[in-house]
Write a structure and sequence with these properties.
This protein is α/β, with parallel strands linked by helices. α8 links the parallel β7 and β8. The protein has two domains: 130 residues, Alpha-Beta Complex (Aspartate Aminotransferase, domain 1), CATH 3.90.1150.10; 248 residues, Aspartate Aminotransferase, domain 2, CATH 3.40.640. A seven-stranded mixed beta sheet has the order 4-10-9-8-7-5-6, sandwiched between helices. Strands 11-12-15-14 form a four-stranded antiparallel beta sheet. Strands 1-3 form a two-stranded antiparallel sheet. The longest helix has 19 residues. It is globular. The structure holds pyridoxal-5'-phosphate. The site of pyridoxal-5'-phosphate has 13 residues, from α5 and α6.
């Protein structure tokens, strides 16, 4: 490691403008949690909010709460709040379903808006569910379309007159590499294609400006940097200008113009509500709202500044350990994670977890460390780097129990 000491890390924490936010989260004693990009930590306020929703709204007021507690408006209310985090003016974001399902809706709608074009363009290394969903959409539409997979650096050059939609994940889940959202969106539009962003590893980790970039559609996760809890519902953004023509295939009653008229024929609601399908998951939405409120209470530019300082520090601290750095060298070209490559990555991550340093492993050989600025300290960055150095130098990872594979990695 470099000459940077634990005392230096503590000095950075003392000067940290976001330091107070940590106390708003429940974090296990003695653990360094570097997996907020897979499952965000639990906000302290969540249990109390859920207790209220369960005991008072559900337990006491029962079905009245759809009106009196505003349950029916939660998808849009929380959607508008997430909109503030991702640069979307009100009325363009709803919370519903999972990221995968929202991708299905958005991709299907996008292809309908470009009926004369047949290509969905994406990266070969995109997150698997994004690719699988695109394959399912194509099958549903009779196989007339093509999912064209290109290398990361070839995306802009591959957009052409046959491209209906460019579908990209803003921050690569494996490498952390971040696309130039404004630039790629402009390139798609220059060729008449639509742009769909997956913000799974961006929302809540940095400022995002969907409206400013002119994005057409976006989706993102509730349980990662938004701290909405395991399986939290996801969000879907449809830009104003597309809402009237937006037709998605999951035509359930909650997306109907008059759900409680109980008519026979589907008629889409005005505006973003037509992106909904069925009954909103009220408990999950309540938990997600708490996580989103925690982010709205801070300045996302400060979040990004701290994220860059943390990822930059971690990279410097582990630079001499013989691990290959993955993704762009410049932290500003990355999201809030650091990825390193090692053939024994799985066992090394397990050995770290056994010491209370929780990162994760992404096949085939990537150690991934997420830095959620709201609840991580610089001393945690230092501690994680020191533990990684020790695990490597002592060979502590090479024990049978660290090689055993679990169902979820
Ligand atoms: C985490 C993640 C998802 C998750 O989708 P779910 O439907 O919530 O399982 C989708 N896309 C990307 C890029 C992700 O990182």
């Amino acid at each position: 490691m470099t000459g940077f000491t634990r005392a230096d890390a503590l000095a950075l924490d003392a000067a940290d403008e976001l330091a107070a936010a940590r106390a708003r989260f429940v974090l296990p004693e003695g653990e360094i949690y570097l997996d907020g990009n897979s499952l965000g930590a639990l906000p302290r306020a969540t249990a109390e909010r859920l207790r209220h929703v369960v005991e008072a709204e559900w337990g006491r007021d029962l079905i009245r709460s759809w009106n009196t507690a505003g349950w029916i408006d939660l998808p849009q209310r929380v959607g508008d709040k997430i909109g503030r985090l991702v640069g979307a003016a009100p009325g363009q974001v709803v919370v519903a379903d999972s990221t995968s399902v929202n991708l299905f809706k958005a991709l299907s709608a996008a292809l309908r808006l470009r009926p004369e074009r047949r290509v969905i363009l994406t990266e070969r290394s995109n997150f698997p569910t994004d690719l699988y969903v695109a394959q399912g959409v194509i099958e549903q539409l009779g196989g007339r379309h093509e999912l064209r997979l290109v290398g990361r650096d070839d995306v802009a050059g591959a957009i052409g007159p046959d491209t209906a939609v460019v579908m990209l994940t803003h921050v690569d889940y494996r490498t952390g590499a971040m696309h130039d959202m404004a630039g790629v969106t402009a390139a798609a539009h220059a060729h008449g294609a639509l742009m769909l962003w997956d913000l799974a590893h961006s929302a809540g980790a940095m400022p995002v400006d969907l409206d400013g970039c002119g994005a057409d559609f976006a989706v993102g996760c509730g349980y990662k940097y938004l701290n909405g809890g395991p399986g939290a519902p996801a969000f879907l953004y449809v830009a104003w200008r597309h809402q009237e023509a937006f037709r998605q295939p999951l035509t359930g009653w909650m997306g109907h113009a008059e759900p409680f008229a109980f008519g026979t024929d589907y008629r889409p609601a005005e505006g973003i509500r037509r992106a909904l399908c069925g009954t909103p998951p009220v408990l999950s939405l309540a938990a997600l709202e708490v996580g989103v409120d925690e982010l709205l209470a801070v300045d996302l530019h400060a979040v990004r500044r701290k994220s860059l300082a943390m990822t930059g520090l971690f990279r410097r601290l582990v630079a001499g350990l013989g691990l290959e750095a993955v993704g762009p060298e410049d932290p500003r070209a990355c999201g809030s994670q650091v990825s390193l490559r090692h053939p024994q990555g799985y066992a090394i991550v397990q050995a770290l977890i056994a010491r209370g340093i929780v990162g994760d492993f992404r096949a085939p050989d990537i150690l991934r460390f997420g830095f959620a600025p709201l609840y991580l300290r610089f001393v945690d960055v230092w501690g994680a780097a020191a533990a990684l150095a020790d695990v490597l130098e002592t060979g502590a990872w090479d024990r049978p129990e660290f090689h055993r594979r679990h169902a979820v990695t």
